[in-house]
Amino acid sequence: MFHTFRSGDLEVFRLNSIEGSGDEPINLTKDSSTDSRPSRSPDGTLVVFQTTRHGNVELYLTDSEGNAQTRLTNTVSNNINAAFGPDNKTIVFQSDRNGRWDIYRLDKDTGVETQLTASASDNINLFWSPDANWITYQSNRSGAWNIYIFDVAKATEYQVTNFAMDVINPSWSPNGKQISFFVNTIGTLDLYVTNIQGTSFKQISIGGDAGNAAWAPQGDRLAYQVSIGSNTDVYTYDLVTNTEYKLTDFNGSDSAPSWNCLGTEVVFTSVSSGNPDLYSTWWQGGSAHTQLTNHLSTDKWSSATTKETGSRGY
């Protein structure tokens, strides 16, 4: 999936191969509003996304062809950053309906919503664990943003990080063992990985401002971007061999990486063709870049799995 303006407004499209090869992109959201931040169900049959078609931001559900559009939330607030759970039916999202950002759970079949967090501070940027028992997110209740984990069954939470500076954008590894995040400890925003207890930290990126971390399906390597001045490049890091690979070298913006479902290719947004398009390359670099989209409009922010931070659009 990716975001595009090719229909005149921001939509979510699906692409199965290379545009122009006989398999054309499919519009999943089909509305003259801003539709964004998709999350695919693990079985690949459904996509939840956010839309401004009612003035505020609400959540909608569609099938994999974009034919059935079902409204999930109906409030006067904003409901964003939805993510499908591993059970294919439970969706978590954040809402500002109480005057702050809290995290909610929604059963797509019954429509029942349950508020999960209830602190006096904001709780945002949620991410499921692989087994659906836990959710990680960031909260500013300590005065700075830090990472927390919520036990869905017990409705309890505990703090993973305790930094004096902001810790943002947690992502849970697919093997369930680690959480990645970003923190500025030395003057740049760097990528770190911790165990879920928050007792062991490993710095991945050094120098430049890192962002948009995405775990490979195997859970043993990460893709991310690093910006230095006006240049942004895409990297991967192998946690088994502790090896970093640089995938792009265009003197401009290559950003927002995601993985294909096999964990062999990294898809990213690049302006190397003159306008933003999607490209893919071998996860260790050293091979040609394949241009996936080829349109005069902007194509950006791909997402192949249930949730990747690059698909949020930053």
Task: Tell me the layout of helices and strands.
Layout: E1 2-4, E2 11-14, E3 26-27, E4 35-40, E5 46-54, E6 56-63, E7 69-71, E8 79-84, E9 90-95, E10 102-107, E11 113-115, E12 123-128, E13 134-139, E14 146-151, E15 156-159, E16 167-172, E17 178-184, E18 189-195, E19 201-203, E20 209-215, E21 221-228, E22 231-238, E23 243-246, E24 254-259, E25 265-270, E26 277-282, E27 290-291, E28 299-300
Structural class call reads mainly beta
- The first-to-last residue Cα distance is 16 Å
Query: Based on DSSP secondary structure assignment, what is the total number of beta strands?
Result: 28
The CATH architecture category of the domain at 1-112 equals 6 Propeller
Low-confidence blocks of residues: none
Proportion of residues in extended strands: over 45%
Mind summarizing the main beta sheet?
4 strands, antiparallel
SSE succession: EEEEEEEEEEEEEEEEEEEEEEEEEEEE
CA-atom Rg in angstroms: 19 Å
Give me the CATH fold name of the domain at 1-112: Neuraminidase
CATH class of the domain at 1-112: Mainly Beta
Number of helices: 0
